[in-house]
Amino acid sequence: MDTAVSDPVVGLVLEGRYRLEERLARGGMSTVYAATDLRLHKTVAVKVMAEHLAHDPAFVDRFTREARAAAMLSHPNVVGVSDQGSDQGLVFLVMELVRGRTLRDLLSARGRLTVAEAFAVLEPVLSGLTAAHRAGIVHRDIKPENVLIGIDGVVKVADFGLARAVVGTGQTSQTGGVLIGTVAYLSPEQLERGRADARSDIYAAGIVLYEMLTGHPPFGGDTPLAVAYQHVHHDVPAPSAEVPGLPWSVDELVARTTRRDPGGRPVDAGAFLAELASVRRDLGIDPVPVPTGQSAGPGTLRPTNRPTRPRPGDRHPSNPGTEVLGGRSGARGGRTSMLPGMGAGPTTDVQGRRPAPARPRPGVPEHIRRRRSRLLIAVVLLLAVTIGAVGWWMGSGRWTDVPSVAGKQEAAAVDLLQDAGLDPQQPVGEWSETVPAGVVISTDPASGEVIRGTDVTVLVSKGPERYTISPDLVGLPVEQVEKELEDLPIQVTRGEGYDDEIPPGSVIGFDPAAGTGLKRDQVVTVVVSQGRAPVAVPDVTGQTPEQAQSNLEKLGFTVERVEDGRSDAVDKGEVMAVAPGPADGPVPFGSAIRIQVSAGVPLVAVPDVVGKSGDEATQILQAAGLKVEATRFFGNSVLRQTPAAGEQVERGTSVTILLTFG
Q1: What is the H or E stretch that residue 494 is in?
Q2: What is the pLDDT of residues 135-151, one digit of tens each?
Q3: Contacts of 321 (CB under 8 A, 6+ apart)
């Protein structure tokens, strides 16, 4: 049937840019279409959220989170996400289009892979996850359906819809205790406590490795709850138990990456990748091309990859697990239900393994009887070991002592707590004046005997509590600076200062200086510019007007010349007075200075001494500041004087008097 006819969404143009051309895949939560980017003229993949979920804020948030998480990553083994939006009632995100098939399709067609082929697929998966983990992102839903194998053999990790950034405690949990994921690949800590970190992705990748080697996941059951119970309470069996002849180092690698205790797994995908490379070197496995399965149709198996013998409870690998939504699963119980559209068919159980074979007829060959006898002995031994382990666990094995880690470096403390079987949370920082930065102050619980797996809060010193003021605030207006300092736990006061460059009202500095470590509530003075500092007026008396003006203007003053005056002390043509003057002290920069130039000595009116005796006239004229030159002509009475009485003359001028008979 034509997709454009059967699917009304085909042909729509979203946000005027993405024209949906062909439906590629459909699930219970979303549908993927091939689309044309009309702006860039290229083919892309558009994932459209199912209509019945588009109005659910929780699922819209998951959808948006997928776009943001994938957009943070730029790696050749991660499906790129370039856009996200909502249009015409459709919530969608735009992704890189990968032509090829999923790992689930490959396993359905091939049954299982060789060790070299499994490594060839897993290495790029771990490379993409390494980039995610180092960016602080946990995928939380690693499974064959989310591993895309292009026709060119490039492997990419897809569907970051469950991804969460590692924040707070360093683990992710679901809002309200709701668990979303594929139960066949969920780690025990996700099932028990709803928490996930990079080590949870390692567990899921280890399960995928087991499935590639054997053709089915390790655990099966009639319900998702039964599968979850096995993840929580049973170790993943060795792949060689299903496929005899697999190297023991491959069994060890699967065991290390799927340990129920997260502390026993590699810390992230980079560590897993390093261990995988080490096993490859030890076994001398040469790299092989990634199997694309393009030459074999569905159901076609190579002779070297025949499906392994089925086991009770197995089902077809096309549906290895059920995506579940519910409370905490596993031993904790809780409501568990399937999301619509996520299962593959009614002929398999929830774990995606093949149906149980028919009972063998009597008279089976001897080698089969021997194999059954060995299997029975193994089951009895396993049961005995299990009973002993349960007894040990219910007795002393479930308890452990909290080690004393106060005073140790953070990394060493975390290692000690993990070695003791405890679950250290993301360390919490606290200021300390006595404990150096990076050193553990205390833990909660601090000591004593607790159940293994108990969460331990680690309090780590951040060193002395200090705050600094940026030097970039110098030169800004004081109001703006004080607003910038409001978020710092310090006390701010104002001071004043002069500066030749920073204008009045702007900050010229701080006390203590900017960049100094400040304690909480410490008082800091913001020094505000009052402009240029006051300038002392120099003594320019006795200088020519031109000299005085030049000297004053060099200091920033403006010069005004007032009406000339007279001075006994200053020669004519020289500055005789300055206002304001040196005695007035410093004056504001740029002030106007008035100068007065001497026009000579002061003038005096010549006294009238005619008729006076010579001695008296001399006394009167000298008292007026004049000099006396007397000419006697037979007498001592002033007959005439020059200059005449009342005439204005300069002080010190000589007055001639003529003395005669009176």
Answers
A1: strand 491-497
A2: 888 888 899 999 999 99
A3: 143, 182, 183, 184, 185, 217, 224, 227, 350, 351, 352
Asked if 204 contacts 342 with a C-beta cutoff of 8 angstroms, the reply is no
CA separation for the pair 632, 614 (Å, rounded): 9
Strands 42-49 and 30-37: antiparallel
Instruction: Name the average pLDDT for the chain.
Output: 81
Per residue in 552-603, pLDDT tens? 999 989 999 988 888 888 888 899 999 998 988 899 988 999 999 998 888 8
Distances (CA, A) of 606 to 600, 602, 603, 629, 649: 17, 13, 9, 14, 7
pLDDT at residue number 25 = 82
Whether residue 405 is predicted with pLDDT greater than 80 in this model: the reply is: yes
Q: Which pLDDT does position 147 carry in this prediction?
A: 95
The yes/no answer on whether domain 100-338 falls in CATH 1.10.10.10 is no
- Rounded Cα distance, 519 and 535, in Å: 38
Residues forming a β-bridge with 657 = 630, 641
Residue 326: partners with Cβ closer than 8 Å, 6 or more residues away: 178, 179, 334, 335, 336, 337
How many residues in total does the chain contain? 662
Which CATH class for the 545-597 domain? alpha beta
Alpha-carbon torsion angle 547, 551, 553, 556, nearest 10: -170
Q: Which of 83, 105, 141, 571 is catalytic?
A: 141
Domain ranges of the chain: 3-95, 100-338, 368-397, 401-461, 471-529, 545-597, 603-660
Say which residue the tokens 């049937």 belong to: 1
pLDDT, average across residues 473-485: 93
Is 539 an active-site residue?
A: no
Contact 399, 449 (CB under 8 A): yes
Task: Give me the amino acid identity at 654.
Answer: S
Domain 3-95 has CATH 3.30.300.30: no
Phi, psi angles (nearest 5°) of residue 441? -85, -50
CA separation for the pair 129, 126 (Å, rounded): 5
Element (H, E) at 95: strand 90-95
Q: CA dist 492 to 474, 507, 514, Å?
A: 15, 13, 13
pTM of whole model > 0.85?
no
Cα angle: 465, vertex 470, 474; to 5 degrees: 140
Rounded to the nearest 5 degrees, what angle is found at the Cα of 522, between the Cα atoms of 521 and 527? 125
What number does CATH give the domain 603-660? 3.30.10.20
Closest CA to 59 of 37, 34, 27, 36: 27
In angstroms, the CA 443 to CA 521 distance is: 28
Whether residue 162 contacts residue 144, with contact meaning beta carbons closer than 8 Å, is answered with no
Predicted local distance difference test score (pLDDT) of residue 367: 53
98 phi, psi to nearest 5 deg:
-110, 115
**pLDDT over threshold 70, residue 396:** no
Summarize pLDDT for 301-313 with one digit per residue, the tens. Answer: 333 333 344 444 4
Asked if 597 and 545 touch (Cβ cutoff 8 Å), the reply is yes
Return the CATH class of domain 471-529: alpha beta
pLDDT in tens, 204-240: 999 999 999 999 999 988 888 889 889 999 999 999 9
Rounded Cα–Cα distance for residues 344 and 318 (Å): 7
The pLDDT tens digits of the residues spanning 426-442 come to 889 999 989 999 999 99
